[in-house]
UniProtKB/TrEMBL annotation:
It holds the Pfam family HisKA_3. It comes from Streptomyces glebosus. The keyword Transferase applies. The lineage of its organism: Bacteria, Bacillati, Actinomycetota, Actinomycetes, Kitasatosporales. This is histidine kinase. Residues 32-221 form the Putative sensor domain.
Length: 437
């Protein structure tokens, strides 16, 4: 998701294309391609040996344990590959799900390893990556070294007449003294210019080659899509549980500090009024009148608290009227536009309402805006909520902020929060929610 935009610093005046051959990213990716060949040879040799030895011993009792141990070794080598990709490519790939034994003991572990799809994906990676590593190694090394060598040709061409008894690099020859040499100023300049083109193209070619490695590492050495989804759902469930617990604590605090305290004071006042009823009816009547006012205040606080849990107007009339009533309580003038032909699921409707409520509170408290807009519409299977203001900007979703918590709550239901808030404004915050109508 997007975060706030900080003021832009003045960047380098050198074009990106000219900086790329000297950038750290290019040389790290080039080093990754160079190291891929020996690493792939090791993994390929190991995988072939393990498969041959394990399948060959299947006629004995040693075959299955040997094969399981070999698969476990492939997973360990895959861990080295993920670490290499993380260090040189900046690619963060989580470790795959560990084998889950259905029973204790060695045979339970052996069965879990053999049944693990992640273990076999590591073997497939070992077999597939070698031919690609050979190609990318040869291609990148040739392109990169030849490019730099040709670019620097004017600096080292003197070695030909000095040591090889020929005027320059031989482009073509028949072995009988007839040949074409790169020795004239035009030929030297053309050679250096062609080398410059190779050097400038090299970083993009190298980056393209490493993209294939990224796909292979992520797809074969990482967790499966199902495991990733399960992990995401577990994380989302934790966010939902924490949010619900925080809401319960807020309700308890509001009841304790608000309505409950007023009701306790009301009971005490009515007790005093009861004692004074016989001896001083006028004072008792005055105390009862004050207690009546306290009752109204307590009822108003309870009504506000209930509205904070789930407003009745949202249940009865839907998002349009509920958001109109919400914007009317905002200290900044808000223009509300709701374009929905039907109502979403009640849970999504409630999340959209409280998302808009929190965003409008931020406008009131922090934006220093003079006007705001609230738009709600559908886009395919998504419910869109957009709050924009003409304030000072600078909103962000860094950890610990209210927007960070809001983003986590939206993510828990497969939603998304997009923040566009450059310093100086304006601010546009879009919440996307699944429709689930």
């Amino acid at each position: 998701m997007d975060t706030a935009y900080a003021p832009r610093l003045r960047g380098s005046r050198v074009p990106v294309g000219l900086r790329a051959p000297f950038s750290g990213r290019t040389w790290r990716e080039f080093l990754y391609l160079l190291l891929s060949l020996p690493m792939s040879v090791l993994m390929f040799t190991y995988a072939i040996t393990v498969l041959a030895l394990g399948t060959g011993l299947l006629v004995t009792t040693l075959g299955i344990p040997v094969l399981a141990g070999g698969l476990a070794g492939s997973r360990a080598l895959g861990g080295l590959e993920r670490a290499r990709a993380r260090a040189l490519l900046g690619l963060e790939v989580a470790a795959p799900e560990p084998p889950r034994a259905s029973r204790p003991g060695l045979m339970g572990w052996v069965g879990a390893v053999l049944k693990s799809g992640a273990s076999w994906r590591h073997v497939v990676y070992s077999l597939l990556h070698l031919p690609w590593a050979i190609f990318s190694f040869v291609f990148s090394l040739t392109l990169w070294t030849v490019g730099w060598a040709l670019l620097a040709y004017p600096l080292w061409r003197w070695t030909f007449p000095a040591y090889l008894d020929q005027p320059g690099a031989l482009m073509w020859g028949d072995g009988h003294g007839h040949g074409v040499y790169l020795d004239t100023p035009t030929e030297i300049g053309f050679t250096s210019g062609f080398g410059l083109l190779l050097v400038l193209a090299g970083p993009w070619v190298i980056h393209g080659l490493t993209q294939v490695d990224r796909v292979m590492v992520h797809g074969l050495l990482g967790p499966s899509l199902l495991a990733t989804r399960v992990s995401q759902l577990e994380s989302d469930r934790g966010v939902v549980v924490d949010t619900a617990a925080a809401d319960l604590r807020r309700i308890e605090r509001d009841l304790h500090d608000g309505a409950q305290a007023r009701l306790v004071a009301l009971a005490m006042d009515l007790g005093l009024a009861k004692e004074k009823l016989a001896e001083d009816p006028e004072a008792a009547a005055k105390m009862v009148d004050e207690a009546h006012g306290e009752v109204k205040t307590a009822l108003r606080e309870l009504r506000d608290l209930a509205r904070g849990i789930h407003p009745a107007i949202l249940t009865d009339r839907g998002l349009g009227p509920a958001l109109s009533a919400l914007s009317a309580r905002c200290t900044v003038p808000v223009t509300v536009t709701v374009d929905l032909d039907r109502r979403p699921a009640a849970a999504i409707e409630g999340i959209a309402y409280f998302t808009a409520s929190e965003l409008l509170q931020n406008v009131s408290k922090h934006a220093r805006a003079t006007s705001a807009t609230l738009d709600v519409w559908t886009n395919a299977d998504r419910l869109m909520v957009l709050v924009a203001d003409n304030g000072q900007g600078g909103a962000h979703t860094e950890s610990g902020t209210g927007l960070a918590g809001l983003a986590e709550r939206l993510d828990a239901v497969d939603g998304l929060l997009i923040v566009d808030s450059p310093s100086g404004g304006p601010t546009c915050i879009t919440a996307e929610l699944p429709w689930r109508g």
